[in-house]
Amino acid sequence: MKKLCPSILSADFGKLAEELKAVESAGADVIHCDIMDGHFVPNITFGPDVVAKVNSITELPLDVHLMINSPEKYIKSFRDAGADYISVHIENNYHINRLVSQIKDTGAKAGVVINPATPVKALEYVLEYADFVLVMSVNPGFGGQKFVSNSLKKVRELKDIINKNNYNCIIEIDGGIGPANIKEVSDAGVDMFVAGASVFKAKDIAGAVKELKKLIS
Ligand code: DX5
Ligand code: ZN
Q1: Contact criterion met (CB below 8 Å) for 76 and 45
Q2: CA-CA distances (angstroms) from residue 6 to 1, 54, 121, 195, 206?
Q3: 82 φ, ψ to 5°?
Q4: Which residues are tagged catalytic?
């Protein structure tokens, strides 16, 4: 089943519990948590304590996207906070294979993230170990940006490699996803869809979740 993963980066943190309940009752599958440290990306968000709070509010699984330097230092804390999926970028991590193992050893699903200008080829020797690849379809750091259009080509290329090699790895996409492009992205082979602004900035949050879910079902 394809999964819709609203990103709380665009939520109103003053009403976080209310908004989490709204997306959950409307049929969201996973909650995406964006962790930024002001070094790897030019923005700062929140850490394990907030993730633990989110985990206490929602029954949904948590997908923690680490946009931080030295992620190996924090994987355990995020897992302890309730992360079910943890992803790390390939760009700042020389020891990506070791990181994937570290995530899997905690019991979480391990994801490798590639930025818009990182080629699929960079994943060649890690793909067979990853549970999922997160294809960034915007440059990481902020919500509400425009979808980088060649991300579709990238997804197709990646899907083809996964199929040809029979890898047990799914594709997630993150950035600029909304009702205008989610169907096309789904048809290209994506299984998990992060949606920030198109859900939490919508007038009707529950309605937005339902519409996006319908488009990928
Ligand atoms: C950006 C984050 C995204 C962000 C997506 O760095 O990784 O998860 O929340 O937001 P939208 O869906 O608004 O592009
Ligand atoms: Zn993200």
Answers
A1: no
A2: 16, 13, 28, 5, 11
A3: 120, 10
A4: 34, 174
178 Cβ closer than 6 Å to some ligand 1 atom: no
Q: Is the CB of 213 under 6 A from ligand 1?
A: no
pTM, two decimal places: 0.98
Residue positions counted in the chain:
217
CB contact at 8 A, 100 and 130:
yes
Q: Is 6 in the pocket of ligand 1 (CB under 6 A)?
A: no
- Radius of gyration over alpha carbons of the chain, in Å? 16
* 155-191 pLDDT tens trace: 999 999 999 999 999 999 999 999 999 999 999 999 9
Surrounding residues of ion ligand 2, Cβ less than 5 A: 34, 65, 174
> Cα–Cα distances in Å, from 106 out to 64, 65, 197, 209?
14, 16, 31, 30
Q: Which residues of the chain have pLDDT under 70?
A: none
Among residues 132, 114, 135, which one has the least CA distance to residue 188?
Answer: 135
Write the DSSP assignment of 110-168 as a string of letters.
Answer: EEEEE-TTS-GGGGTTTGGG-SEEEEESS-TT-SSPPP-TTHHHHHHHHHHHHHHHT--
The full set of domains in the chain, from first to last, is 3-216 (3.20.20.70)
